[in-house]
Specification:
Pfam families: HTH_20 (PF12840). It contains 5 helices and 3 strands. The chain is an alpha+beta fold. The chain has a 3-stranded antiparallel sheet. α1 packs antiparallel against α4.
Length: 113
């Protein structure tokens, strides 16, 4: 059975929603106020706050409050486990495809019987 990493599952869950990915894309440019993040989504502020709480729980976003203004910033290093997992998967599939290529090339060189 494959290893189960709850942190990785939490990260993929947070990134699974297109609204949250859109928020992450916006925050990759610069920190932003919650109201600025809510505008382009067309969602009400409480809904955006729920999306932000999922991102914050996964460690992808950090928020700070100055008076009544809540500002969000991306935490890029939080994506490291996702990158590591994807790199491992790429290596596995590259090795499998290399073996398949070698097998096909061997079959093509052998004369039919």
């Amino acid at each position: 059975m494959a290893k189960h990493d709850p942190d990785l599952s939490l990260l993929f869950h947070a990134l699974a929603d297109p609204t949250r990915r859109s928020i992450m894309t916006r925050l990759s440019e610069a920190p932003a106020r919650v109201t600025d993040l809510a505008g382009p989504t067309g969602l009400r502020l409480p809904t955006v706050m729920r999306h932000l709480s999922v991102l914050e729980e996964a460690g992808l976003v950090a928020t700070s409050k100055d008076g009544r203004v809540r500002t969000c910033a991306i935490v890029p290093e939080a994506l490291a486990p996702v990158r590591t997992w994807l790199d491992e998967q790429r290596a596995i599939w590259d090795a499998r495809l290399d073996r398949l290529d070698a097998f096909v090339m061997t079959m093509m060189r052998e004369p039919p019987t």
